[in-house]
Design goal:
It comes from Gouania willdenowi (Blunt-snouted clingfish). The chain is α+β, with helices and mostly antiparallel strands and 1145 residues long. 22% of the residues lie in helices and 30% in strands. The chain is built from 21 helices and 60 strands. Strands 14-15-16-17-18 form a 5-stranded antiparallel sheet, with no helix packed on it. The chain is elongated and about 130 Å long.
Length: 1145
């Protein structure tokens, strides 16, 4: 048997329940691996791996409406360590930046008094990671320094701002969703507010889905479903405000850029998701729900794959993956997996969904009743489709692990992340890569965790008997909470987890009294009938077995309601007090009724049992009698030979057997009537005797409650007066509290502890009865925004409060906050979170996981890690190890770095090996390298290889061409085709210009120019001169086109960079230039990124990695003094062993 250890010092905590409607959007899953969720004015920190709450933050006075974890997109070292930092905004306009580990507020910000609309930490520059952007109603965006609370700048707009979204590929671009449309900002920077009011566009209502249109009689081949919606929604974004009849702007629920590909945005409507190409301002994809389908409430786009997590109104989460087709006519997102729905009622509704940003294969659903459902996406092998015409392209599992080909004996973590579960989907009809055998997989959701909250208030709480030296070996700090639905929840306050849930009553539980450490009595009363009578339920519950029975037997129907139950100090007797009926006295041990008082018995307003009894004297008398009996049974001769220890054992046995029998000790209680007179009653066995009567105190009103401990008796009345009686000194002292009705008073446990907890209508207080003075106070409307429903002592120095916001709080005696240091928390399951460690320990652990040069094999003796077996695998390369550890740590910067580094280190190593093997034969041109087994994901944009980047851009312009619906669209497509070198198709589009179009003549001439252009010297010089003049006169795009037509794309890139179009120059270099020329352009871009004005060295490092400038990268990383990147040069020298000429260094 495992020995049970008792944690005597319990940590402060909050047991949360149902959510407020304002908490609906207050949830975030951070790179740190933890979930933050707002619950009324508190914030829960949840570990999704173990499904337990590890911290509760309390300082807000209003409901929390937004929470946002800080980003981890910076290089970590001792001066910039891993930290758990969270920003939260409430309904009163206050923003608090938290140090989550210590549970303290690092910074408080207040600008206006209206609810915060949106929050986001800036991640796009290396100078500061403390910048926090907030939307303050109605129309302000404010940039704050989240470390100091300083306002950096403030900008107002014409419309009310609902939310915003940053372009993940270009942080100078952001979109504001307003009450009338969308405002696009292209000059966002942290140094100053946007100079312009942005480009305002309007949203045309997508009323073309099957849910919004009545089916008309059409031909048999008429399009239906999503295709019908796509055909009708031709232009979604317009510069002119649409008519009121054609627009329902409030239907737009969400706006978000797609992190999987540049210049794409999604708009969420209740019955469709619209995918926009921002270069065309055109809808290129629609996910529409049929008429019988369940509407959307939220969508989260993925970065690792072009996929969408969708939340529906019934709580169902669906995953839709973009279909790959050879000639796409539209973007189609196929349903690949869905989880089970929940039962939706008036009080139970799905609120929000979040996904893990590190792996993108875990989702959490927040339900209005306080539940958190944790879903994990799993992949399993499937047979090839028997019906290839079904339209679904197969999903294949990648043949690599952590960016490297999987070895024959290498261990692999299944379902590590979304991009390790499904590879880049093959285009329909395309053959798999040679020398690979991809496994077709299917996806499914699996419920891996569930957190349940408290039900709706009110609550009746009662702490189990206190810890003593006699019960220390088997004591558990259990709190019983009776609920409005008749169930009793028993929580273990050491862990804060639900110990047992018992369905005991059929109506609201009114009170609970423990009769032992493992059993309790609870009572409930039904709604009164016409005569004011109710059905009373008094149940005895045994916790270990869950058995419960009606303690009063058949009694309870059609009688006055029970007001209170009181159990005696020795748990022998029970008093049941009714509203308009004399009290009953029961023997708990036998379950028998000792006395039902006469009808003329006074009406009880307050009652309490005395802690004094005669049990000790009874035991002494019985032990003396047993000892005498034992001695009489032993003769004088034998008595001398019997050891005293034997007699002692015999006496102990007799004593225990007697104790197991019913020993009726004398106990007594006091109560008051409506006049304030105090009555004293003594109970011993079956005997009930009346004692002294004390006349009422004239200074006291009607007595509402009594508490008794030692020689101190305290009475509280309905007027807010406390009367302290010193029974030993026969003194009384009245003290007015001016707080109104004293609802309940309880003494703290522990010998000599004379602290008293008092509950009022508007709060609670702790009093020291020795000094007769207040120790601490809590008041609704002054320092808290919740009302107290019930109180009790948790330990001798902590109180437990039930409140009307659905929470139960364990607080220190000062009653200030339930937040605590996380390292003081006693968790049931260990939590893997390196952010909880001190900086030096976190980096030591990271170095330990990355490299152990003192040993030939890796060991994991420090701690238990989920990936232990894989990290110990000798087949795991250092590159794979670095990528795995960065994912394990949730290090956003490291993960991007090692993803790019791993890909290009292997790619250039393959090129080096191939060049050596073909040295005697045909050699490759300088700077080229063969494509790896799978190209880099397109979410890395211009960091991808030129071949895959060109293919994506060609596919995109083909889709744009299909979707063009105006001359402006056609012109943009023609321009893109010219830059991509597709001159023939560009000429066709230019010749489509109508004769009545003002641009007809120019487009015709341009078509002739493109068709007849030659590479002769004079024509080249003329065109270059014209292009230069056009650029000098502000026609940058047109001049760049002309330069590209005469194969002067390198000059075009230089002009673009000169005029600040760095992203456009990088795009052009990727699609047109040779690797050597493109490398020069991208190197200049990297230098620009490193400049003090831009300060994006981390992005510059990624650009240099994509060029193979590994030693240059190593020099830059040396200045950051980080843990992971210190292994970079070692990888170059030891594992990859690729050396290049100075051009690549």
């Amino acid at each position: 048997m495992i020995p049970y250890t008792v944690n005597i010092k319990l940590a402060a905590r909050t047991l949360t329940g149902t959510l407020s409607l304002q908490n609906k959007t207050a949830v975030d899953w951070g790179w740190q691996g933890l979930i933050a969720q707002g619950c009324h004015s508190s914030i829960l920190i949840i570990d999704p791996k173990t499904a337990q709450t590890i911290q509760v933050l309390e300082k807000h006075k209003a409901n929390v409406v937004k929470v946002k974890w800080s980003r981890e997109n910076y290089y970590h070292n001792i001066s910039s360590p891993y930290c758990l930092r969270l920003a939260s905004g409430d309904a009163s306009g206050k923003i608090i930046v938290w140090d989550v580990v210590s549970g303290t507020a690092h910074c408080e910000i207040q600008e206006h008094s209206k609810p915060i609309q949106d929050l986001e930490w800036l991640w796009n520059q290396d100078a500061s990671r403390d910048l926090l952007l907030a939307v303050h109603p109605p129309n302000y965006i404010v940039l704050w320094n989240g470390d100091t609370g300083t306002k950096l700048w403030k900008k107002s707009y014409a419309e009310n701002i609902l939310s915003f979204s940053f372009d993940p590929f270009d942080p100078s671009n952001m979109a504001l969703l307003t009450s009338e449309g969308i405002v696009f900002i292209t000059d966002f920077t942290h140094s100053k507010p946007p100079g312009s009011a942005g480009k305002k566009v309007y949203i045309a209502s997508p009323h073309a889905s099957p849910a919004h249109t009545k089916p008309a009689p059409t031909a048999a081949l008429a399009p239906t479903g999503a295709k019908k919606a796509l055909n009708k929604v031709k232009v979604l974004i317009t510069n002119e405000k649409p008519t009121a009849e054609a627009v329902t702007l409030n239907d737009c629920l969400q706006l978000s850029y797609l992190p999987s590909k540049r210049n794409h945005m999604l708009l969420l409507y209740p019955r469709e998701i619209l995918i926009l190409d921002l270069e065309l301002s055109q809808t290129v994809g629609v996910v529409a729900i049929e008429r019988s389908g369940v509407p959307f409430t939220q969508v989260i786009p993925c970065a690792q794959r072009d996929a969408l997590y969708c939340l529906h109104e019934n709580g169902c989460i669906t995953l839709r993956v973009c279909r790959s087709t050879a000639a796409p006519e539209e973007l189609v997102y196929d349903l690949r997996s869905q989880c089970d729905a929940i039962r939706v009622t008036k009080t139970v509704r799905p609120y929000r969904m979040v996904i893990c940003p590190v792996n993108e294969n875990n989702a959490a659903l927040m339900v209005s009743d306080g539940r958190v459902m944790l879903w994990e996406l799993k992949s399993h092998p499937s047979k090839p489709a028997t019906n290839p015409s079904s339209g679904l392209s197969p999903l294949y599992s990648p043949v690599s692990f952590c960016g490297a080909p999987l070895g024959p004996n290498q261990k692999k973590i299944q379902d590590l992340s979304l991009n390790s579960m499904i590879g880049q989907t093959l285009t329909a009809g395309e053959a798999p890569p040679p020398n690979t055998s991809p496994q077709e997989v299917q996806l499914k959701f699996l419920l891996t965790g569930l957190l349940s909250g408290l039900p709706l208030p009110p609550f009746a709480i009662r702490m189990c008997p206190p810890l003593t030296t006699k019960n220390i070996n088997h004591y558990q700090p259990l709190l019983a909470s009776g609920t409005s639905n008749g169930s009793v929840l028993v929580y273990n306050l050491t862990s804060g987890l639900l110990h047992k849930e018992l369905s005991v009553h059929s109506c609201e539980v009114r009170g609970i009294e423990w009769v032992s450490l493992t059993s309790f009595l609870s009572f409930a009363t039904s709604s009164p009938n016409n005569m004011g009578l109710v059905r009373n339920e008094l149940q005895y519950v045994d916790l270990p077995t869950g058995r419960c029975f009606a303690f009063r037997g058949e009694r309870g129907n059609d009688e006055p309601p029970i007001e209170m139950i009181k159990v005696s100090h020795l748990k022998q007797y029970l008093v049941v007090v009714f509203r308009d009926k004399p009290l009953e006295l029961w023997d708990i041990r036998t379950g028998t009724l000792l006395r039902e008082m006469a009808k003329n018995f006074p009406t009880v307003t307050a009652l309490e049992w005395s802690p004094s009894h005669n049990l000790k004297s009874l035991k002494k008398k019985q032990m003396a009698a047993r000892e005498a009996m034992a001695r009489q049974t032993v003769s004088d001769a034998e008595q001398s030979s019997v050891e005293s220890s034997v007699i002692s054992l015999l006496q102990d046995a007799e004593s225990k057997s007697e104790t197991s029998q019913a020993i009726s000790a004398r106990e007594h209680f006091v109560f008051t009537d409506t006049d304030g007179q105090v009555y004293h009653i003594t109970v011993e066995g079956n005997t009930v005797k009346d004692g002294a009567r004390i006349p009422p105190d004239g200074s006291m009103g009607s007595i509402a409650c009594i508490a008794w401990k030692g020689d101190t008796l305290v009475l509280g009345d309905v007027d807010g007066n406390l009367n302290f009686w010193d029974l030993k000194a026969r003194l009384s002292r009245g003290t007015p509290t001016h707080r109104g009705w004293v609802k309940k008073i309880r003494f703290a446990p522990g010998k000599g502890n004379q602290k008293l907890l008092v509950m009022y209508t508007d709060g609670a207080e702790v009093w020291d009865t020795k000094e007769v003075q207040m120790v601490s106070s809590i008041r609704f409307g002054r320092n808290v925004n919740y009302k107290i429903l019930d109180i009790d002592w948790c330990t001798s120095d902590k109180v437990v409060l039930a409140s009307d916001d659905g929470c139960i709080r364990v607080l220190e005696m000062a009653m200030k906050s339930a937040s605590y240091r996380m390292d003081e928390q006693d968790l049931t399951d260990p939590v893997w979170c390196p952010y909880l460690l001190v900086p030096r320990a976190a980096f030591t652990l990271k170095a330990f996981l990355l490299m152990q040069p003192w040993s030939g094999t890796f060991t994991m003796d420090i701690t238990q890690v989920d990936m232990k077996s894989v990290l110990q695998d000798p087949e795991l390369s250092l590159l794979q190890r670095c990528l795995l550890v960065s994912r394990l740590f949730g290090d956003e910067s490291d993960l991007h770095f090692w993803t790019i580094a791993s890909h290009y280190l292997q790619s250039f190593a393959q090129a080096r090996q191939l060049s050596l093997s073909t040295a005697d034969g045909q050699t490759q041109s300088e700077g080229t390298h063969p494509p790896p087994q799978s190209p880099l994901d397109i979410c890395h944009d211009t960091l991808c290889e030129s071949s895959s980047f060109q293919k994506f851009q060609l596919d995109r312009v083909r889709l744009q061409e299909v979707k063009r619906s105006s001359y402006e669209h056609t012109k943009k497509c023609a321009d893109q085709l010219l830059l991509l070198g597709q001159t023939d198709r560009a000429v066709q589009l230019l010749l489509e210009t109508c004769a009545d179009n003002p641009s007809y003549y120019c487009d015709s001439l341009k078509a002739c120019l493109v068709t007849t252009i030659t590479s002769s010297g004079p024509s080249q010089s003329t065109i270059k001169l014209v292009a230069t003049n056009m650029i000098a006169n502000g026609k940058l795009a047109e001049g760049v086109q002309l330069l590209c037509l005469i194969d002067k794309a390198a000059d075009a890139c230089r002009y673009l960079q000169t005029y600040g179009e760095w992203n456009r120059a990088a795009w052009l270099a990727k699609v047109l230039l040779s690797p050597a020329e493109g490398s020069d352009v991208l190197k200049r871009w990297a230098e620009h990124l490193c400049s003090p004005q831009v300060n994006q060295k981390s992005k510059a490092i990624l650009v240099l990695l994509s060029l193979g400038c590994f030693y240059k990268v190593g020099e830059m990383l040396h200045r950051f003094r980080t843990v992971s990147q210190k292994f970079f040069l070692n990888i170059i020298k030891v594992e990859v062993q690729c050396f290049y000429k100075e051009e690549n260094l």
